[in-house]
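Minutes, structural biology subgroup

Action item carried over from last meeting: produce the structure token record for GPR139 protein (Branchiostoma lanceolatum). EB confirmed the sequence was re-checked against the source entry. Recorded below for completeness.
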Amino acid sequence: MDGHFLFNKTTFSNDTNDAGPPVNPELASKQAAFKLFYDIMTYVILSIGIPGNVLSVAVMFSPRLRKAPFSMYLASLAAADTVFLLTSVGLQIFHDHELIHASDVYCKLTKFLVRSSGYLSAWITTAFTVERYIAVCHPMRRSTLCSMKTTKRVLLGLAVVICSVSCLEFWAQVERNNMCEFRDPETWLNITIYDMAAGRLIPTAAVGVLNTIIATTVFRKKQDRRSLSVAVVETEKRQQQITIVLFTVSTTFFVLTVPQSVVVVYDLASRTMDDIDDFTFFRKQVIAFTLGLMFKLNFAINFILYSLTGRRFREVVVDVLCRGVRPAYEVEEQQMNPVQTAVFANIPGARELSAFDRRRYMTSRTPFRSQVQLDRSTSDEATIHRTSSVNGPDCAAVTKL
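Output recorded by EB:
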């Protein structure tokens, strides 16, 4: 999954001299410049990916989000992405600097972790895209098919199947001259074809089709919101926020992985690596390594996507980073007028809203605000009488606003 098998002519590593000695100084200069660019981008991907994924796991398991099925999907995705970055990028850096020397056990174990984590990332993305498709296009079945119990079963099933399949790496990988290589060219070709089908083409095709349907359905549902109650509209908006986050993640996965898959399939079909000059080979290397960087970026950018598209995610990030400071919306909610809280509690669907949505709804509705302002201009006894007659006997116990 890490892109080093793009060409069978030579193993693609961080060493740009793997294709042989440079023909002329111009080519050597271009190779050195691109190697510097590749190394810098690799460190950037690793430095933003690992902290971002770790923080994503912490946020998804926070009290506000851990009970939602989509949080379990995104936490699992962040964990798989972290393992991929550590094994595919982190260990490769140590190996390039000769801080780690390859052995037979090292090759088999690291390649198993790279392949299984890469497959898990792709199929978890596909799984929560299916979950969003059900939630958006079949909302009546969402509570049954998109429950936390179902999510745990799906994730466990994916982990068992993918790890079982990835055990092929223990047979296919061997160590030769401090390098991890496939046992033979035929093994390389078979696993590459399988990798493209199971780890790239099928997941990206499913994500592309489902996202198209989801986007169309969401756009159509916007036209029907006028006939819904306020509480239901707020719930729909919350679901839409979740859909936007997951749609962005799955679309980014599609955009960053498809180009490399297309190039790999093209090279496998055309066998264009035979009898080409050094400059042509270098250009193909540049394309292959650039697409490889795009592919690895997919495992590091999700935290940024969550932060840009998820309002609740941003709130929880602040809460996690500043646990000693209570979020402002919780303080405001507790300071609200008890009459407002009692009236709002009787609205159908209000219990399904988050604390932030309840606070925003109550503070934005003029009937409540005007009633409170009017009540504050009278005595306590008149206030109790007025709120009792308007809001019912449940509010008669309120002695002071």
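Discussion: Residues 1-20, 327-339, 365-401 have pLDDT under 50 and may be disordered.
Next step: EB to file the record with the rest of the batch.
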